[in-house]
Design brief:
The chain is α/β, with parallel strands linked by helices and 492 residues long. Helix content is 33%, strand content 24%. Helix 2 (47-52) links the parallel strand 2 and strand 3 (59-63). Helix 7 (171-181) crosses helix 18 and helix 9 packs parallel to helix 16. The longest helix is centred in the middle third of the chain and has 18 residues, at 212-229.
């Protein structure tokens, strides 16, 4: 193809429901792409038939299932256009997207990439979610630093080496970080260029939360690049080890979001903090799993974060077995911080109000911390289970890697010491989502070490009202989190 031509890559896995509509939105462009490449990432449904039904309008490529980043890279290798663009198989382009972005490249030849705003829309199967968040930020156009809105040149794609195939969720955020670091000039159009479909099978919905380790991996690569550019020697490992944080002394000065502990620590006591908002359905079961621990030196601190249901009544039913505090709704970070300030234990653990611990979680993790004085935090494995209302989802997803038992660095799997929070501070109360990722990034930066117990410690409940279903972190929000976390800390 000659110059000024555009290739659009569509990675798809089991996308027969929406793929045709997505392709039609490309063909209906006021300036259509010159080629459409559908990369079938090992689909087992009718995706192939849908794609081939478009005949010469579509180039169909099949590969074994390797993830969306690998599928995009395969499409880029097949592409012949001067410009590269992308469409997720369940989303849509606005009719003038490509024409408007090409005009920006004509007006600004120095551009490396162009993105625009994204407007969410909901399928009827999740209409309850649509109605619940009407008027919130998720219902309004948002900046789309995602592949769905991206138009870039094939030369920039080659220079950056495509997408990181080790990342299942953060490959787009990682690409934009590398593009900016390499000096690519980007521009955000202040108009909606694409529509993101929300439905029951969104990858960000079914695999939400499975991105913390990827943030740490991206952070480590960023720090390695900075050390290398400053004459230092980057680590050779591709990502932070699960059993050792990157080397180096802890940052000097006052910790971020410091926690004041008004009481001295009680040796051997474990403070278990439960943050709850409108948790009447499951909070009792969560608390019972703490009270049933084989380690007896435990205090249970429950922070009611402004519940409007019968949560206070359920908590009152536990009497003196728990310590309850109530605050206006401020989010999980602020609730956990209040629990930290009220804690008396030498050790700290957290449990979400809809999850459940195995009975010897604390005892098993304490043995790790006590056996190795250099370990600051012990984590473990987590596994999903479903409420009956989501039985259809369970049948579809219980064998998905995200939901099977696996190691996870999460507040609900950790056991650490009060001194850890004294060193690096608490959770950022300004963050309503990804506050735990922010904390773990600071943990890594401080040079602290963690170990992962190779067994199940936490059961994660999947239900209709999971916070990650209602308010999943946006990709550009996560990009901002990574960017903030690698900025130099202010000394005091």
């Amino acid at each position: 193809m000659s110059a000024r031509t555009v290739s659009c890559v569509i990675p798809v896995y089991n996308g027969e429901r929406f793929l045709a509509e997505g392709i039609e939105s490309l063909l209906a462009q006021t300036r259509p792409p010159d080629e459409i490449i559908v990369v079938d990432d090992g689909s087992t449904d009718g995706t192939a038939g849908v794609a081939r039904g478009f005949g010469d309008h579509v180039t169909y490529v099949h590969q074994e299932n390797a993830g969306p980043a690998a599928a995009r890279n395969r499409g880029v290798r097949e592409a012949r256009g001067e410009f590269i663009s992308f469409l997720d198989a369940d989303d849509l382009w606005e009719p003038t997207k490509l024409e408007r972005q090409l005009r920006r490249f004509e007006a600004r030849p120095e551009l490396g990439y162009s993105v625009g705003l994204v407007q969410n829309f909901w399928e009827e199967e999740v209409a309850e979610e649509r109605d619940r968040i009407a008027g919130t930020a998720r219902a309004k156009p948002i900046p789309g630093y995602v592949t769905l809105t991206l138009l870039t040149t094939s030369s920039w794609m080659r220079e950056l080496g495509g997408f990181d195939e080790s990342l299942g969720h953060g490959d787009a955020a990682d690409w934009f970080r590398r593009a900016d670091a390499a000096g690519a000039v980007g521009e955000l159009l202040d108009e909606v260029v694409a529509r993101r479909r929300l439905h029951r099978d969104n990858r960000s919905r079914t695999n939400s939360g499975d991105s913390r380790d990827e943030f740490l991996a991206m952070l480590k690569r960023k720090l390695d690049r900075e050390r290398a550019s400053a004459g230092g020697k980057p680590d050779t490992a591709p990502a932070p080890s699960r059993d050792s944080a990157p080397g180096g002394a802890a940052p000097q000065g006052r910790p971020q979001h410091p926690i004041e502990f008004p009481r001295p620590a009680v040796a051997g006591l474990v403070s278990c903090i439960v943050a709850v908002h409108d948790g009447e359905r499951f909070v009792a079961e969560a608390i019972e799993s703490i009270l049933a621990q084989t380690h007896e030196a435990i205090e249970v601190i429950v922070i009611d974060d402004g519940s409007t249901d019968d949560t206070p009544g359920i908590l009152d039913g536990f009497g003196e077995r728990i310590r309850t505090f109530r605050q206006d709704n401020r989010g999980p970070a602020a609730a956990r911080n209040l629990g930290l300030r009220e804690s008396r234990g030498e050790f700290i653990a957290f449990l979400d109000a809809d999850d459940v611990w195995v009975t010897d979680k604390i005892e098993a993790q304490l043995s790790v911390l006590r056996a190795d004085g250099d370990v600051d935090l012990c984590s473990g494995h987590i596994r999903s289970f479903w409420t009956p209302e989501l039985d259809d989802e369970r049948q579809r997803l219980e064998d998905d890697p995200y939901h099977r038992e696996k190691p996870m660095l999460s507040p609900c799997t950790l056991l650490t010491t009060r001194s850890t929070f004294e060193r690096i501070g608490g959770f950022d109360p300004q963050l309503r989502t990804a506050e735990d990722s922010d904390w773990f990034i600071r943990f890594q930066r401080a040079g602290l070490r963690f170990s992962t117990l190779p067994r199940l410690v936490t059961h994660r409940r999947q239900h209709a009202d999971n916070l990650t279903r209602r308010t999943p972190p946006s990709r550009d929000g996560l990009l901002g989190l990574i960017q903030r976390s690698v900025e130099p800390e202010e000394s005091t």
